[in-house]
């Protein structure tokens, strides 16, 4: 049976907190009418610190996208290789036992893809399959898990390496002065994570049993990027806060059909760290005990929202405390408005 082994995570050394971001807003947008409300929201966001690949002073001074692309490529390859090697070791495999590489990243672009770089850096087999995922945002980590599950479910002799890398700091748009820009600048962060999906059950971990994809109609404007020379103009519509009530029935019926229990009876949840309001809504709509969302909240507080990386980090945190026989619901949400969900049993 397909099993997610112990993940690996990595965060860069440069840390920022809420005060740092409010200082940047004050300097870059001294006359903004949104400052007071933004500062109130930032202080209540439950994000204590985040990690960046460069000092915040350098983030503010970044050049055009061509210059940022080179920084992205160097940082992404270095972080990806680091977590990939650790994840393969955690899965008790050799590099020549990896059959597919799935790499997710929505905060930069390179060609050849990150998957090709990993095949070369790790000396994977020449016939290793590649799936680079670049446009799914925060849902991409869970999507990669879903695609790996579908592949291994029919090929129990195969293993898939999943690597997620995000450098949100390289998307910073100095002149973007809307309220939602300020909130995004205080929430998103950099990091990397990796996990191996083994097609067999010869390792401790989360044995997946089912997965499902859901895209809610007429929600395209909820999360969007506008690509500009000066950075990503990220749009996070306020209606995104009302997205979870649309998704919750799918999560509930998914658990009832596949695990034959209600979502609030699952032993632990593995939710990507969309933000405090998103986690609050998941608790409310699924009637969850707050303790079942503790790993997602801890990840949010300590690393912010690292997009596709976050759900793998929450999986790692759950891995450290889950016991054999417990059930898990794994889910993430992103542009589209899309949700990817999986359920499994710990072994």
Automatic annotation (TrEMBL):
Domain of life: Bacteria
PANTHER family membership: 1,3,6,8-TETRAHYDROXYNAPHTHALENE SYNTHASE, HYDROXYMETHYLGLUTARYL-COA SYNTHASE
Domain Chalcone/stilbene synthase N-terminal: 62-199
One Pfam family it belongs to: Chal_sti_synt_N
GO BP terms, alphabetized: polyketide biosynthetic process
Gene3D superfamilies: 3.40.47.10
The keyword Transferase belongs to this UniProt entry's keyword annotation: yes
Name used for this protein in its record: Type III polyketide synthase PhlD
Residues at the catalytic site: 138 (acyl-thioester intermediate)
Limits of the Chalcone/stilbene synthase C-terminal domain: 216-341
């Amino acid at each position: 049976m397909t099993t997610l082994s112990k993940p690996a995570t990595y965060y860069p050394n440069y840390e920022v907190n809420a005060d740092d971001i409010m200082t940047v807003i004050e300097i870059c947008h001294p006359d903004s009418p949104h400052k007071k409300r933004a500062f109130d929201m930032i202080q209540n966001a439950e994000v204590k610190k985040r990690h960046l690949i460069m000092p915040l002073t350098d983030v503010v001074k970044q050049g055009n996208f061509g210059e940022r692309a080179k920084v992205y490529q160097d940082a992404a390859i270095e972080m990806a290789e680091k977590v990939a090697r650790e994840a393969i070791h955690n899965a008790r495999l050799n590099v020549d036992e990896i059959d597919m590489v799935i790499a997710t990243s929505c905060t930069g672009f390179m060609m050849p893809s990150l998957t090709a770089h990993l095949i070369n850096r790790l000396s994977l087999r020449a016939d290793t399959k590649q799936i680079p995922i670049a446009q799914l945002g925060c849902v991409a980590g869970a999507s990669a898990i879903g695609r790996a599950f579908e592949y291994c479910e029919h090929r129990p002799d195969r293993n898939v390496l999943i690597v997620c890398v995000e450098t949100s700091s390289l998307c910073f748009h100095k002149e973007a002065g809307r309220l939602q820009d300020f909130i995004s600048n205080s929430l998103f962060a950099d990091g990397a994570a990796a996990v191996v999906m083994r097609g067999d059950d010869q390792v401790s971990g989360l044995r997946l049993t089912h997965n499902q994809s859901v895209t809610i109609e007429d929600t395209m404007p909820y999360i969007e990027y506008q690509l500009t020379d000066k950075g990503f103009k990220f749009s996070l519509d306020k209606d995104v806060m009302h997205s979870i009530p649309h998704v919750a029935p799918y999560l509930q019926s998914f658990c009832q059909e596949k695990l034959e229990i209600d979502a609030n009876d699952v032993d632990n949840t593995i939710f990507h760290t969309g933000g405090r309001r998103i986690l609050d809504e998941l608790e409310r709509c699924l009637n969850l005990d707050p303790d079942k969302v503790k790993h997602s909240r801890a990840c949010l507080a300590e690393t912010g929202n690292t997009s596709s990386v976050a759900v793998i980090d929450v999986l790692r945190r759950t891995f450290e405390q889950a016991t054999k026989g417990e059930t898990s619901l794994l889910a993430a949400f992103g542009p589209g408005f899309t949700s990817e969900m999986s359920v499994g049993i710990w072994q």
